[in-house]
Amino acid sequence: MALSKRVLFIFQAIECLCFFSLSQGNQQFSLRNLPPLEKASSFPATRPEAYDYIIVGGGTAGCPLAATLSLKYKVLLLERGGSPYGNRNVSYMENFHIGLSNMAPDSASQAFISTDGVINARARVLGGGTSINAGFYSRASSSFIQQVGWDEDLVNESFPWVEDKIVMWPKIAPWQAALRDGLLQAGVSPFNGYTYDHVSGTKVGGTIFDESGYRHTAADLLAAGDPNNLRVLLHASVDKIVFNTQQGRLKPRATGVQFTDENGRLHQAFLNSNRDSEVIVTAGAIGSPQLLLLSGIGPKNDLKNHRIPVVLHNKYVGKGMADNPMNSIFIPTKSPPRQSLIETVGITEAGVFIEASSGFGQSPESIHCHHGIMSAEIGQLSTIPPKQRSLEKAQKYAHTKLNLPKEIFQGGFILEKIDGPLSSGHLALIDTDVRKNPAVTFNYFSHPHDLTRCVYGIKTIERILKTNRFSELAAGFSMERVLNMSVQANVNFIPKHTNDTESLEQFCRDTVITIWHYHGGCHVGKVVDQQLRVLGVSGLRVVDGSTFSRSPGTNPQATVMMMGRYFGVKILRERLGQAAGCN
């Protein structure tokens, strides 16, 4: 009998070691191994299978997490949007701006307007933000990893797991090369070459666009999982998490979820009876706090106002929402620049990042669109009261582009954005429909230090424009004229002032836009613990940017994808360690 136990222990230990080797990367990675992507309506109405893990949100963190957990356990991944494959507005960089401006109810991007008056976007597609973003890949700083308390060895294993599969070095575009040279001539040094690392100075980072401009997303990472253990449902909108709240239980326990399919029919999916099984929410910084609130976890008075049964009172759900404010300056050029998204970045000691984009101007396809950070539209809603502003009215204003001089659209942007804004706001439900956006407030520049850093960023751009490199490219406009043009070009619904170019502080306030790096709402120590388990309940975690108190690195997608892999490996090691006695 003792020998049998010893043999069993050795077998389990070997299994544990075999899993550890998986965390070093899979050289056989191929999209041919993607699991079937099924419609939510295919889910059986009677006697559905029970799962070890139900993951809500097939996004930047959810896809690598699901792939990793499926190597050993049954996983159900629920995504509210559709597939990125075959969608040209997702797959090709040249259509980046068109995808963002698509207002269709099934589009990959769901627009929302913060109460501050800034147009923003949420992903509504498998792959999440990696399917609609600008593609730039740069790791978090080592200080960020230390601050959040993650295992640095496992972090350094998890980043390459992502990079080996979907990240490439860009063939640097002329506008990006110009920014690189301009940054160095303006004193943002040293030049750190091509690197994923977050280091002060100027660098070229990675990209998820290949040389043909084709986008590789977090959805591709699902191919690293076990398709026999992984079920992926599309157009599955999770309405709420289901809890066992029987009297006598120490804590409410998550047992499953309720979701609506593409035909409007309700379904329920449940965890199996194993005590380690979990619902893991990876719906992003807007979707995750929203779903907790809809499921009865949040400020009890707010929940009662919406007639949501209270599972757990937690006043911090939805609080501490922040978005890295960005301001862009449009630079007219002597000739049309080639299209480019972010490839080069200047990381300043003042906590300001300088980036650039180019070539997303007026074309037959884009003439009626607002383009977010690539926008060169004129005509703002500054004369319309905030309560009356809408995305539809923004589209009407965009029609004025037809009558504008071509130089307004012939050029590129230099962007400055704030690292770790001290200004923050909150998220609150408007109604109980998970498909609708909640009310989100970021309170941009409410903290004076954020405003000081924005002014520093604008002055840095001014130094760049005075360098020899940019004087060769630009059409000879003065800084005052460029600022005036940029006041008109930025699409937000914030009233403008006549002294925008005289006061850089006012310019920052009036032209603030977003680059979609919002975070918070489920902070560690307030909503989740260090292992991202939701406080006060069992069987529930949140693994995404809603747990961050600041956005990692210059662009968060690298760290959020790594995070999905990291916590997948961590969970498996804990469970396999419990079974085999491994540490």
- The residue-averaged pLDDT reads 85
The value of Rg in angstroms is 24 Å
Amount of helix: 25-40%
Give the percentage of residues in beta strands. 15-25%
Spatial order of the strands forming the largest sheet = 7-8-19-20-21-18-24
Shape label: globular
Using DSSP, what is the number of strands? Answer: 25
Spatial gap, N to C terminus: 25 Å
Q: Give the helix/strand class.
A: alpha/beta
Query: Which regions contain 5 or more consecutive residues with pLDDT less than 50?
Result: 1-27, 362-387
| Total number of helices | 15
**Main pleated sheet:** 7 strands, mixed
Describe this entry's structure for a reader.
The protein is of the alpha/beta class and 583 residues long. Helix content is 28%, strand content 19%. It contains 15 helices and 25 strands. It has helices at residues 2-22, 62-69, 88-91, 96-101, 142-148, 152-166, 174-185, 284-294, 300-305, 391-398, 448-465, 468-473, 479-489, 504-511, 557-580, and strands spanning 37-39, 53-56, 75-78, 109-113, 119-123, 136-137, 191-194, 201-204, 206-207, 230-234, 237-244, 253-260, 266-270, 278-281, 297-298, 312-313, 319-321, 325-332, 344-347, 352-358, 411-418, 425-428, 439-441, 513-514, 540-542. It has a seven-stranded mixed beta sheet, covered by helices on one side. A six-stranded parallel beta sheet has the order 1-10-3-2-14-25. Strands 11-12-13 form a three-stranded antiparallel beta sheet.
